[in-house]
Design goal:
Number of domains: 1
Structural class: alpha+beta
CATH superfamily: Gcn5-related N-acetyltransferase (GNAT)
Strand order of the largest sheet: 1-2-3-4-5-6-10-7
Organism: Streptomyces diacarni
CATH topology: Aminopeptidase
CATH class: Alpha Beta
GO cellular component, one term: cytoplasm
CATH architecture: 3-Layer(aba) Sandwich
Number of strands: 10
Biased composition (Basic and acidic residues): 179-191
Radius of gyration: 17 Å
Protein name: N-acetyltransferase
Oligomer: single chain
Distance between the termini: 24 Å
Keywords: Transferase
Length: 241
């Protein structure tokens, strides 16, 4: 029998983590269309409402019911606006571990929403689901995501060389995506090579493919264990899961 996460919501003082709803499609589409998100994500672009609706209505629910993970829309408690998303994926139910990935809307960055939502997710995962490990992977040039991992108390475990494909505007060909600009986005279960913005014959960006080129980069592996959160459980007011 496949283990699955419950269909729940998680609250903090400022945020509600809940399942995506079809009403979120316009906000999700706008969030994923941001250039800084496109730089690190593997989803297709331009990101259309069709893509968003398929993710919200089919792929996100299937991730949970299939036992692979769970996806949450991150919304402001007071305004109910969508500020981002967090996801657990690659769940190993025997080891009790999963990888956490996330995205933050451009207008909501700098408010601490990423670390707050990830901390709430980790608390729930360790306390209620009795998990023993959360893993995060950040691109080598994504210093903003690395700062979030450090703020949570994650431990850097090493580097996976050439393990990720980032994107850069073709006018900046040869220059990695700007450091410190964004949180790592939710991959949405698409292959890393989705899009194929390089011309295989010349290894140069294809100008017909939307002005983006793909560049390989390293991934830094971070881990978070229950004991790493000692002293941080009191930082968030606990609510009923």
């Amino acid at each position: 029998m496949t283990s699955t996460f419950p269909d729940i919501s998680i609250s903090t003082d400022r945020l509600v983590l809940r399942p995506f709803e079809e009403a979120d499609v316009p906000a999700l589409t706008a969030m994923m269309a941001d250039d800084q998100i496109t730089a690190w994500m593997t989803s297709p672009f331009p990101y259309t409402e069709t893509e968003a609706r398929d993710f919200v209505t089919r792929r996100a629910p299937a991730l949970r019911t299939g036992g692979e993970g769970i996806v949450f829309a991150v919304t402001e408690l007071l305004t109910q606006r969508l500020v981002g998303s967090v996801e657990l994926r690659g769940t190993d139910w025997r080891v009790r571990s999963a990888e956490a990935v996330y995205a933050t809307a451009s207008w909501a960055r700098g408010e601490g929403y990423a670390s707050e939502s990830l901390l709430a997710l980790a608390q729930w995962l360790f306390q209620d689901q009795k998990f023993e490990r959360v893993e995060m992977r950040t691109a080598a040039d994504n210093t903003a995501a690395q700062q979030v991992a450090q703020k949570l108390g994650c431990i850097s475990e090493g580097v996976l060389r050439n393990a990720w494909i980032a994107r850069t505007r073709t006018e900046n060909w040869g220059i990695p995506p700007h450091e410190g600009q964004r949180d790592r986005p939710v991959p949405h279960d698409l292959p890393e090579t989705q899009g194929g913005w390089e011309d295989p014959a010349t290894d140069r960006p294809d100008p017909q493919q939307g002005g983006w080129a793909e560049l390989r980069t390293d991934l830094i592996v971070w881990s978070l264990l229950p004991e790493d959160l000692d002293g941080t459980f009191e930082q968030l007011e606990q609510h009923a899961w």
